[in-house]
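Pair request: fold both.
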Amino acid sequence: QVRLVEFGGGSVQPGGSLRLSCEGFGFAFPQYYMTWVRQAPGKGLEWVSGINSDGSKTRYAESVKGRFTISRANARNTVDLQMNSLEPEDTAVYYCYANVGGANVWGKGTLVTVSS
C-alpha cells in the first residue's frame, strides 16, 4: 500500500526548533519529488518546501526561507523538515506529499504548535 507517515510534531515555544520526518511505504521513494505542505487553523493549504529525488535541489516558501531546511535519506525512504526559529505563525498541521505515478499521496499530518 502506497502511504506516507509523518513523525515529530509537538509543542514548542517561539524561537524553538522541531524536526519532522516522513517515511514512505509501498513505492520507489528515491525516484520521487517530495513536498511538505501545512495548514494553519482556519486557513487553506500552504506549500512549505520541496526536494528533488536525489536531494540536490530544494525550494522553500518565502515565509520559512532561512529557518527551515528540507533533506532526505533515500536509503531509509525518509524526508525531513528541520524547523528553527519557530514562530506562532508556524502553528499548523504539517503534511508530507508526493505525486506517485499520477496519484496524489498524502500523509495524515502531524500537528506543530508554537506558543508561549
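--- second member of the pair ---
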Amino acid sequence: VQLVESGGGLVQPGGSLRLPCACSGFTFSGYTMTWYRQAPGKERELVATIGSTGGRTNYADSVKGRFTISRDNTKYTVYLQMNNLKPEDTAEYYCNAGNRYWGQGTQVTVFS
C-alpha cells in the first residue's frame, strides 16, 4: 500500500496550491479519502473528506469556501485544491484512506 502526497511548497498569502495524493495497493474506489494537516506544536486536524464515489464531501469550517477536495477513481488519486491561502494554513498535509492507510505528508508554508 502506498499513498504519496505531492504539490506542497512555499506560497504567499492569497495564493493557491493543488495537492495530489497518488494511491496504490488497495481498492481506491472503495475507500473514503480524507486530507488532514498538522502544524508544529498542534494536534492533527481533519481538513476535508470525500466519499468513495465523490458524491459526498465535508470540510473543516476553517477551510470552507477556500479548499476543494476531489478524486479520480480511474487514476487512484485524491486532490486538495487550496485557494486564498492564509498563514494559518501552514502545516504538513497528509492523505488518509478509510482511517486505515496514511501517506508521508507534504509541507505547505504560507508566508508574507
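Observation on the second member. The chain is about 0% helix and 50% strand.
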